[in-house]
Design a protein that fits this description.
Elements: E1 17-21, E2 31-32, E3 36-41, E4 47-51, E5 54-58, H1 65-68, E6 70-71, E7 93-94, H2 101-125, H3 137-148, H4 153-156, H5 160-173, H6 183-202, H7 205-220, H8 225-229, H9 231-252, H10 256-260, H11 265-273, H12 281-294, H13 304-317, H14 321-331, E8 332-333, E9 336-337, H15 339-349, E10 366-370, E11 374-375, E12 385-395, E13 405-411, E14 436-439, E15 443-446, E16 449-452, E17 463-469, E18 474-479, E19 482-489, E20 496-503, E21 507-512, E22 529-530, E23 541-543, E24 554-556, H16 560-564, H17 588-605, E25 609-610, E26 620-621, H18 632-651, E27 655-658, H19 697-717, E28 721-722, E29 734-735, H20 746-765, E30 768-771, H21 779-789, E31 792-796, E32 847-851, E33 855-857
Parallel strand pairs: 12-22, 25-26, 28-29
Antiparallel strand pairs: 1-3, 2-7, 3-6, 4-5, 8-9, 10-20, 10-23, 11-20, 12-17, 12-21, 13-14, 13-20, 14-15, 15-16, 17-18, 18-19, 24-33, 27-30, 31-32
Helix pairs in contact: 2-5, 2-6, 2-7, 5-9, 7-9, 9-12, 11-13, 12-14, 13-14, 13-15, 17-18, 19-20
Length: about 850
């Protein structure tokens, strides 16, 4: 009989089969028609056979040709046309659509492991003859060893050396990837390791190893067990006993599902109970550490006996790091303190005062940053090559540790310089996580690991240069103008980067950003820009992460820099799907001509004059001529500009309608000095008598904003970026006006508004009027959408302050208005009840949530 299981082959190793050719095939890589082969079940090593209309698995010694040989035959379906392969062969063949190499290897290992362990376990059952009393199976094997000693024939068949080598190979097979491997190889190794762990668990090998551990314990409990098996054999026995636990730890490490199987009271009692044996304690501690860290639900089942057994082991073996790791994992789970375990550990350790846990104090480190964010955003005005310096003003050693000073760049996506626990926390300073790159004079730091690049740390007077090139990307450091010869390349450029320095007590360092924020001593390098060019508004220096003034009970929400900063990406009004009414087609050419006349008038007012060749220095322009004499490209540009303006009005929800002009057409009478050498004098329409209604003011503002966005998008397309100074060097095109319309200089806003209003008045002279839409602006909905994008931070009291009965008071005071503290808040019906039928549970604690930029002060009273 053949027993098979459904489901994917990657979750059940018993579902894996392998095709083996009976005869050698000397040409072609695939199995062809009439090719003889056998089908082997990988985990059992048996071959599939057919006899008397039944299928069965046969041992390899009994798998003869007649029983297990198969041949690939063509069926009776319609013959398909043969298609030539790339290499020219025309063979009809059978192909495999899935080849599970890793799973197949694991299945072979499972077969070998099961075979060795089963032979070893069969020793305990070798003397079982009483089928009516199966409980005597183990006792009979053990009794034989007691009666005959190591001269027993069954004991001689036990190959402990084979079991020992199997344990060593399996531990290596389940080993974690090394730190020297690159990221891609490490991830592939993790995936393969997880697949192996899952297959061994599904096939029951993990339970088989646990059964083996139980058998070992029963054997070791025999009187004078070492004398029964011999001194040399007993040494090997102890090694196997330790390896068994190490193997269990390797098979569950990093696998929550496998670890969760130990998160049961019976299994935990079983593990902690075996700590009494110091020889196997090393492996048991590894198993416990994996279970407690990968399956935190086990922490809820820890009792006083468990903790006392760990501490008693600490007293036996001394300050073993593995014991301390287990004690540490008992105190915390998922970033939350386990108070019950902490209190029990304290109770057992402190009263006697004869055991001291040696710890090391770390200096408190503060990380400072400016309100400067740079990054890579497609179609934005952000420059991509930046440089800043920092000067060490004072550095003094206060403790046994060296002063802490690192300078570098950090990323807004994950840099959280707070040495606490939990997701995305635990970074002490710049360079201690995956989101920052630091330099301390001797080493460059990333992900908490330093690489030596120089011979000394920073000293007083040193000037450190930090450059960031987001085009490569690349980060480099210099000391007093000398490159340290090391850099970081090809890092992730998601998020925004900002300068940062981390420093301990009695360390003083100053940012130098260039311009009015400090003269750069050794930079910037060619093609780079000083960081001051990225400052928008007033420069500020503040803590990277601050919870407020805790000493005064002042708490703050997240900083507004990371939530409110958005790069300027011009987004003009989309007019691609707008079709103008047919009656507008006759007007747009006249409108384009008036746009040209207005442009020429303003150009002449700025001192320009006609010239056949354009010259910025002499202020000569060949387009200062009549609309009809413009070059074809310039004329088409004005026509397109007129059409785009009309389409923009329609796209904004307004409608163009025809009506009688309010007055006749007449040009503006300009002075004689507007006359050009070619006889041209601008003649824009006189619109001073046209008064626009108030409902068109939003349209004027929208057109002015769109004009700025169109200009900015064209500038960015030509390679311009934002900068406070228009000229940095000959290779950089910078403009201080590449900012959102709300931040543009008021003079530019007024000019854009006046131009938009002039265009609307000119359209009325051509008989084109604008009808405002009927919808209303929903300010409440817009405010709600802005609130949803905002981030917040929640504070709560510890669980020791929880209340479950009585009456407690929590007040809130807004510093707006003249209301006294403690005013009752009531709903429209006059009730002061906010919530009813509140479920208390384990207790309620005071809590508050603060948004970006908000601050609050807490005041606590025993009685109100």
């Amino acid at each position: 009989m053949v027993i098979y299981e459904g489901g994917q082959a990657v979750t059940q190793a018993r579902s894996l089969w392998r095709v083996e050719l009976i005869r050698m095939k000397w040409h072609g890589a695939l199995i062809g028609w009439e090719q003889l082969f056998r089908i082997k079940h990988i985990t059992s090593g048996r071959y599939l056979g057919v006899m008397d209309n039944a299928v069965q698995l046969y041992h390899k010694d009994k798998a003869d040709f007649d029983l297990t040989a198969f041949v690939m035959c063509q069926n009776k379906v319609e013959e398909k046309k043969a298609v030539a392969l790339k290499d020219g062969h025309m063979d009809d063949c059978y192909t495999f659509f899935m080849a599970l190499e890793e799973e197949s290897k694991s299945a072979r290992v499972i077969r070998k492991c099961s075979s060795v362990l089963n032979r070893f376990l069969n020793f305990f059952m070798s003397f079982c003859l009483d089928e009516t009393n199966p409980s005597n199976l183990l006792l009979r094997g053990i009794d034989a060893l007691q009666n005959e000693g190591n001269e027993s024939a069954d004991w001689e068949r036990v190959d402990l050396n084979e079991v020992l080598k199997l344990m060593e190979d399996l531990i290596e097979y389940f080993s974690q990837p090394g730190d020297d491997q690159d990221f891609e190889h490490k991830q592939n190794r993790y995936r393969a390791l997880r697949s192996r762990q899952d297959l061994f668990q599904e096939e029951g090998v993990l339970n088989m190893i646990l059964d083996t551990i139980d058998k070992f314990s029963q054997m070791e409990s025999l009187p004078d067990f070492a004398g029964l098996i011999g001194e040399d054999t007993h040494t090997m026995w102890e090694e196997i006993s330790t390896y068994l636990y190490l193997l269990v730890a390797a098979m569950i490490k990093g696998n929550h599902y496998n670890c969760a199987q130990f998160a049961a009271a019976q299994r935990l009692d079983w593990l902690f109970g075996r700590l009494s044996n110091p020889q196997s304690a090393e492996g048991i501690l590894d198993v416990l550490y994996c279970v407690l860290t990968e399956s935190p639900e086990a922490l809820n089942m820890i009792n006083e006996c468990h903790i006392s057994s760990v501490i008693s082991l600490l007293e036996k073996v001394g300050r073993d790091p593995k014991v301390l790791d287990v004690l540490s994992s008992l105190c915390e789970g998922n970033g939350m303190a386990v108070r019950s375990s902490q209190n029990l550990i304290t109770t057992y350790l402190l009263p006697g005062k004869d055991l001291l846990l040696q710890t090391a104090m770390r200096d408190h480190v503060s990380s400072m940053m400016p309100n400067v964010l740079v990054g890579v955003v497609e179609a934005s005005a952000l420059f991509r090559r930046w440089y800043f310096e920092a000067e060490v003003e004072h550095i003094e050693k206060m403790t046994k540790e060296d002063p802490y000073l690192r300078i570098g760049w950090a990323n807004s996506h994950g840099f959280r310089p707070f040495p606490g626990s939990g997701d995305r926390w635990g970074c002490n300073g710049v360079g201690d996580d995956f989101y920052s790159y630091g330099f301390d004079g001797r080493c460059v730091y990333f992900a908490g690991k330093g690489r030596v690049v120089a011979s000394r740390l920073f000293e007083k007077g040193d000037v450190i240069g930090c450059s960031l090139d987001l085009n490569v990307p690349e980060i480099r450091f210099t000391v007093n103008g000398q490159d340290v010869g090391a850099c970081y390349k090809d890092f992730n450029i998601d998020g925004y980067f900002f300068p940062v320095m981390s420093l301990s007590a009695k360390v003083s360092c100053r940012f130098i950003f260039g311009g009015d924020q400090g003269r750069l001593r050794f930079g910037p390098p060619p093609g780079f820009s000083a960081t001051v060019e990225a400052v928008s508004g007033e420069l500020q220096i503040f803590d990277c992460l601050s919870f407020g003034d805790i000493q005064k009970n002042v708490y703050c929400g997240p900083h507004t820099l990371f939530t409110s900063t958005e790069p300027f990406v011009p987004q003009p009004v989309d007019i691609s799907g707008i079709n103008l009414p047919h009656h507008i087609e006759d007007v747009h050419t006249k409108f384009a001509g008036n746009l040209h006349e207005l442009w020429a008038m303003r150009k002449i007012e700025l001192g320009w004059s006609y010239g056949e060749i354009r010259s910025e220095a002499l202020r000569k322009h060949p387009c200062l001529t009549s609309f009809e004499r413009l070059p074809a490209t310039e004329m088409q540009y004005n026509i397109n500009l007129a059409l785009d303006t009309l389409k923009t009005i329609e796209a904004l929800g307004y409608h163009l309608i025809i009506d009688q002009p309010p007055t006749r057409l007449r040009p503006v009478r300009l002075a004689q000095n507007f006359q050009q050498s070619n006889g041209y004098r601008p003649q824009p329409l006189d619109t001073h008598e046209i008064i626009l209604p108030a409902e068109l003011q939003p349209l004027i503002e929208a057109l002015a904003k769109n004009t700025h966005n169109v200009w900015a998008k064209e500038k960015i397309k030509r390679g311009w970026t934002f900068g406070l100074s228009e000229f940095v060097d000959s290779t950089q095109k910078r403009s201080p006006h590449l900012v959102p319309y709300e931040e543009v200089d008021n003079r530019i806003k007024e000019a854009n508004r006046e131009s938009a209003a002039e265009n609307l008045r000119a359209l009325q002279l051509y008989g084109i009027f604008i009808e405002a839409p009927g919808h209303e602006h929903d300010e409440l909905a817009e405010k709600e959408m802005r609130t949803r994008k905002d981030s917040c931070r929640t504070y709560r009291a510890e669980a020791t302050y929880a209340v479950s009965s009585g009456k407690c008071y929590l007040g809130r005071k807004w510093h707006q208005g003249a209301e006294i503290y403690g005013k009752e808040w009531k709903d429209p019906s006059g009730s002061e009840m906010a919530f009813d039928n509140v479920i208390c549970g384990d207790g309620l604690v005071p809590a508050m949530t603060l948004g970006s930029g908000q601050r609050g002060q807490g005041t606590f009273f025993l009685f109100c």
